[in-house]
Input
Amino acid sequence: MATLDIISPLPGVFYRRPSPESDVFVNEGDQVENTTVIGLIEVMKQFSDLTADAQGTLIRFCVDDSEPVEPGQVVAIIEIQE
Amino acid sequence: MNFSDHRLLIANRGEIAVRIIHAAQALGIRTLAVCSEADKLSLPATLADEVMVIGPARADQSYLKAELILEAAKQMNATAIHPGYGFLSENADFAQAVVDAGLIFVGPDAHTIRQMGDKACARTTAQAAGIPVVPGSDGEIDSLEGAIAAAQTVGFPLLIKASAGGGGRGIRIARDANELAKEFIIAQSEAKAAFGSGAVYLERFIEKARHIEVQILGDGEHSIHLYERECSLQRRRQKVFEEAPSPALSSTIREQLCQKAAKLAQALHYKGAGTLEFLYDDTSEAFFFIEMNTRIQVEHPVTEAITGVDLVQWMIKVALGESLSIQQDDITINGSAIEMRINAENPAKGFFPSPGRLTHLQWPVGEGIRIDTHLFDGYLIPPYYDSLLAKVIIHGQTRQQAFERAITALNETQIEGVLTTMPLHKALLQDPAIKTADFDTGTLEVWLPENLHKLIEKEKDDALTTH
Output
């Protein structure tokens, strides 16, 4: 099975939830579409959606919720449906 | 007074931390910086006499954590804490905790912060001091029925505001009763989520108004005003370009407004620097109190430029027990000053943040130029905090001279490696409406999409964007 890395294009903080009290956008093992939001990246108090940009199963997050990310860092791995 | 026994901890970062360090060092006070892991190599951490890392990069685990700051204060033998702006500066519990720890809080007491920080309570206090307020609900509203009833006297369009909100956050607009029914519920739950309190109040929305604010300074017994600032040029309710004095006020209205502000400061027995914010309607020459900030403000340097009073030094001096030796009659307006906020944002791309490493930095020099900044050549601007990089403050004998000097100053300024809001300021300085001060708080939101083509930076810099 082929996999694809979801890369953070920005430096900032990665969030898996829309707000601290909310459920996570997606869980490991969930099916995702191109447009599925898998998390938010906060840069200087502004939030950007991070989308899957691929269709398949999100098999693993490589960054924990509320942790800093660097541009180019792998945030999650998707198993692509053939 | 001799302050050399004092050790001032600065519970902030960025340009304001630098500003406070400079003010304290000039008074012979030892300066103690606290910083996050991400700010270890920052300018305030370098300039302060002593520095301590208190937590990780995220502000909620460092600069916003009162217990970490108090612990650092204890370990560093601080005698006083200056909170700057933002972070814990208007947190009454923090101010009280500082005092309970046996230290001096540079600012008003916890009671005043609480009283004036609560928007509904501030309104009542202002009214009691004879200051006109925007027509609004009588205190907080806790039900939709109550909101509909209050809207009858407040009138539409109106704003639903979170009592605990601020900085333009926690505000929704309703233009009629239907919108009120919808927005009120959202406003309540948003206020609860954002500020931990669902308390909201209603206020008439004055569509074409200027934002004018009066600087006050007190020692707890006597207080003065230092005239006004005009901060109407805002984007998403964040100030972008400020000036002092306001080009819109007649001297009669100016005196009325500022005297009322000073009277309120006196009634509060205000200690420290504070700001009373007003909406001003050009046509009717009416002003309405909206809220008070019980801290130093970002745009304080324009007031310092026209009055010659060092506000940050005075806040420290009165906190440490010195009496305010300046009288109201000593305060006069000398010329005109403007402040341009240089943010790490790309104005051509919706003001998207642009953190990163500075590859080249050059500030302008010349008459009437002041730069408040924490930047240095090679500095890595972290993505975790506010995007404010620098304030370019320009003083002239006239407003026109300040504008002319500002154009020269910005043309001489070079900030490379990140994108900034400099192109916005260059365009504003050349705009006929801005030059003639023909604007209100809604102007910039309309101006921006129309003038977007003027905000594209040269291609060399554009290539550096990561998106």
Q: What stands out?
A: The radius of gyration of chain B is 22 Å. The first strand of chain B starts at residue 7 and ends at 10. DSSP finds 16 helices and 22 strands in chain B. The longest helix of chain B spans residues 177-195.
